[in-house]
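the two lines:
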Amino acid sequence: MSQWLEERLDLNRLRRKYFRKAFPVHHTYYLGELSLAAFVTLVLTGIFLSFNYQPSSALVRVAQQDVPTAYASILFIDSLPFGPVIRSIHHWSADVMIAAAFLHCLRILLTGSYKKPREINWLVGLGLLGLSLVAVFTGYALLDDAFAVTATKIGYGMAESIPWAGAWIAQVFFGGVYPTADSLPRLYPLHILWFPLMIMGLICLHLLIMIKQKHTQPPYAERVAPHCILGVPLAPHQVFASAALYFIYLGTVSIIAGALIAHPVQAFGPPGVTTPSVKPEWYFLWIYGLLQLIPSTWVIHLPGGGVLGPEFLGGVFGPALLAVAAVVLPFVDTRRSPLRYMELPNQHPWRTGGTLGLLAFFLAGTLAGYRGDLPLSIAWLWTVLIGAPVLVTVGVAMALRRTGGV
Amino acid sequence: MVDDQSHSESASTETGPGGARVSRRRVLGTTVGVGLGVAGLSALAAAVRLVPRIVVAPDQEPPTQGDLLVYAQGARSGQVLTLGDVPPDAPQVFAWPMDPTSKVVKGGDIHNLILLVRAGDVGWYTVDQKPHTIQNVAAYSAVCPHLCCTVSDWRATPSGSGPQGVLVCPCHLTRFDPWAGARVLSGPSPRPLPVLPLAADAKGRLFAAGAFLTQVGCAT
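prediction for all of em together
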């Protein structure tokens, strides 16, 4: 068999060229792979879900109650053997995909691995993180329960708040002024086809560029074997390690999904006239917090009828500012010679301080999301939101400078 | 590169009908350019129709003068509201407008959702708000101008004399003053809730004395 294939496909050449690719050994190098593992799981469980889901908000009668068809189809999925487990694996995998991608991004940031020659792959990675967040948001809407409609309405409002083009953008993606009968037929193909396709394309690009440019290496590699790529070959070592990681992941997430059914739609119920008091997923909590902190008086009128309201400043402007900073970073923080070894965080006090300051900002924003549950005043939260990142950045940078980067 | 240039200058130029020299590269460039332009314009025409046409069904018409108010939820959903159905000093009651002749309940658009509150004393209302109320009952749009959530929550303020109770949007916790034109007390909403002027007939049935005074919804 292998002989038959060999004569036709020249597999030995492929093996020599790619299967011997060296993978440096470091535990943080598995974060990207973990994100990929979660994505693969999302696609597989998504196939099962898409076969049973109906993207329609037309009302049907279930148990003496008029509910949207989509909501009823979720109840149907939950009634299938392993249905709720598969749906929960899909939900928790989305959480893992975003968490792992974020940590992967943080590792790149802390070790300066975005520098020349890897600027392009940094941008591709940012695109992947952004696309994942948008894709997961379109998935929110599909459940069509009271929670989903509230969350999607807020997403619609944020898109609509973009000056000048907002109404057009929002109505194209949400099929008119959300919620309408056209909304789910727009969001469904985006969630199950176009965003996954774009993510797959970018993952391929991400990996191809990585193979072409080679991994950054842990600093010890320079001492052990200078000017060489130190690591284990793709086949068989890395393939075994990756497979092990995947099965550990799948086993763990299955146990979690079996024990904790994600998003029980019946608990939230079909959408009604009132809005339930709900919080978004943890990765959107900081935006939710920012939305609460912007006062009503922050309204800026632009020429041509554009308006920047509190919902734009909190929900769109803040995250967009961070995105722009991330895109610009590798072109500002540059170096002459190509980076081959990871830079140590303690030798770059300000970058490390800034990264931890960014984490402090996310945490402070998240804390603001709990304003309704905790006795926290808006003024106090503003102080923490601005103070904590500055303090952490300066504190960490000063501490690292004093120790002289040792 | 040098080869390329010599080609374009000698071999690939021809004499056009008028005797002018037109290069092949130019003909090709113009053709591709015009083609892309036409394709782009066609794509734009298709893209414009991606915004669905807004069709307003009878149950989506905004409330107008004379519309009766009916319960929007609960066991009495769809029944006409009277003055006695709105208790003083209690959380808001949600209502849809209903066309009095066709009996169409205008619940097809969430922007039509109305909330009703009743003050314990007429003195709670500000001078501006008082003319739009009837026997201490006031009506507002229930759609938060921040991000279009329903202003579902009610916070009772410590009892005592004077105005009590605050309307709260559960999404980003904007607080509205129900006795002063639903002005924003705190939180991110850029505007107060739109006021619906209210009246009652001889049987005590509540009806709209006019349309919402300001624009409903969260669009900026």
